[in-house]
């Protein structure tokens, strides 16, 4: 088959573009090396464990069984997972809890309520379904010993804001939303999904502007902790490599299931955890705390103070990578540094938290926080 000059030029140009594209993508993939940690920083106390939160199995609309999900999590070296199958509540999901080899499998339920989706955790199974009214459901969850987290508030089933009933948490980022929202912009990187899936996952992310702003706003009124969520229905292995919760325990994780479950849920209730985009680099070892009057207050603490009081906020980022650490007060950055350990003296009440950004080359966008701490709350009157 013969081609005319025009078709030859077209085919030549097409081959050239394919080769150029392949070279461009190949260079980026070769450059990508997830940042590592210094093992010396991992000794406790506190004892740091890592897991993922918010995922679905065949008990609702997920494509994987609990066993399949657990295998994917174990392959990523995780310590725990929190299943959140849809239900009101999902009793089969709750009954699947337990140890699967060295992986702690815990469960809650994602409820469909009047304002959107609400994740309930650590509750005793109710005698009747939880209310479909969001405020009533949150109260019933608390009455049954549990706590609730507002799920994906600005995507899919969006949350409509109303009466403040002191939900315990809010999802800051969820992988499912990012993947769907940014599928077209990330399309040039799609082949990386077959070779370096973490690279592709990072290219689907964007700064969670709305949720960070809303989180800071809500924390003016009460204590609310932030979660990075996978919201995984499939591609469990890829998504489990992405967003992790780093939970800080007072003692090593127990081998006895009920105690281990209580340790993890207890730390989540107290805000003793931080979230990280671990696809960009392992974040074990980050610490954020306050010091005042010879006492240390861990992340998640509510500290009473008056206008004459002052204290120091400390952040430790013991990583070999170049980073930027930002101290955020009521949503505004008040201090930024590139040191491995830094502190800032503060004397105003409010909500203080830390964001850490990678400042070496990474597929993670420069405006997307690699690590987000939970806050430390300074209150004039502790309620």
CATH superfamily of one domain: Metal-dependent hydrolases
| Overall pLDDT confidence | 91
Helix- and strand-based class?
Answer: alpha+beta
Principal-axes geometry comes out as globular
Main CATH class of one domain: Alpha Beta
Rg is 22 Å
Number of DSSP-assigned strands: 20
- Report the β-strand fraction as a percent range: 25-35%
What is the correct CATH architecture of one domain?
Alpha-Beta Barrel
End-to-end span in angstroms? 83 Å
Could you tell me the CATH topology label of one domain: TIM Barrel
Low-pLDDT runs? none
Number of helices: 10
Secondary-structure element series? HEHEHEEEHEEHHHHEHEHEEEEEEEEEEE
Specify the biggest β-sheet: 16 strands, mixed
Fraction of helical residues: 25-40%
Task: Describe this structure as you would to a colleague.
The longest helix has 27 residues, at 5-31. The protein has helices spanning 5-31, 66-75, 91-95, 134-143, 175-181, 192-195, 197-203, 209-218, 236-240, 257-269; strands at residues 47-53, 80-83, 98-100, 103-113, 116-121, 147-150, 169-174, 225-229, 243-249, 273-277, 287-292, 295-298, 302-304, 311-316, 323-329, 332-337, 341-346, 350-358, 371-372, 376-379. The strands form two sheets. The chain has a 16-stranded mixed β-sheet that branches. It has a four-stranded antiparallel β-sheet with strand order 12-11-14-17, with no helix packed on it. It is globular and about 80 Å long. It is α+β, with helices and mostly antiparallel strands.
């Amino acid at each position: 088959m013969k081609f005319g000059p025009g078709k030859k030029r077209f085919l030549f140009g097409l081959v050239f573009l394919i080769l150029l594209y392949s070279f461009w993508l190949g260079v980026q993939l070769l450059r990508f090396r997830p940042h590592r940690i210094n093992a010396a920083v991992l000794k406790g106390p506190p004892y740091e464990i890592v897991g993922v939160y918010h995922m679905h199995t065949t008990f609702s609309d997920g494509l994987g069984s609990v066993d399949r999900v657990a295998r994917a999590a174990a392959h990523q070296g995780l310590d725990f997972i929190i299943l959140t199958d849809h239900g009101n509540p999902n009793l089969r999901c709750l009954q699947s809890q337990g140890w699967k080899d060295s992986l702690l499998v815990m469960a809650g339920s994602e409820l469909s309520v009047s304002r959107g989706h609400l994740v309930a955790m650590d509750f005793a199974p109710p005698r009747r379904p939880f209310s479909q009214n969001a405020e009533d459901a949150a109260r019933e969850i608390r009455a049954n010993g549990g706590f609730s987290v507002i799920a994906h508030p600005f995507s899919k089933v969006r949350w409509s804001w109303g009466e403040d009933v002191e939900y315990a948490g809010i999802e800051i980022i969820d992988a499912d939303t990012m993947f769907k929202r940014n599928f077209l912009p990330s399309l040039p990187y799609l082949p990386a999904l077959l070779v370096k899936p973490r690279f592709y996952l990072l290219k689907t992310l964007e700064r969670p502007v709305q949720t960070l702003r809303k989180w800071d706003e809500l924390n003016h009124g009460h204590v609310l902790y932030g979660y990075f969520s996978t919201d995984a229905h499939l591609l469990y292995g890829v998504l489990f490599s992405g967003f992790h919760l780093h939970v800080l325990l007072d003692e090593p994780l127990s081998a006895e299931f009920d105690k281990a479950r209580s340790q993890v849920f207890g730390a989540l209730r107290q805000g003793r955890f931080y979230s990280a985009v671990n696809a960009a680099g392992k974040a074990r070892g980050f610490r954020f705390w306050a010091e005042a009057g010879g006492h240390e207050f861990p992340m998640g603490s509510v500290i009473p103070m008056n206008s004459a009081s002052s204290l120091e906020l400390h952040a430790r980022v013991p990583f070999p990578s170049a980073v930027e650490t930002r101290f955020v007060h009521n949503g505004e950055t008040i201090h930024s540094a590139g040191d491995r350990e830094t502190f800032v003296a503060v004397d105003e009440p409010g909500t203080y938290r830390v964001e850490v950004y990678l400042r070496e080359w990474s597929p993670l966008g420069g405006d997307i926080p690699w690590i987000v701490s939970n806050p430390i709350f300074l209150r004039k009157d502790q309620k």
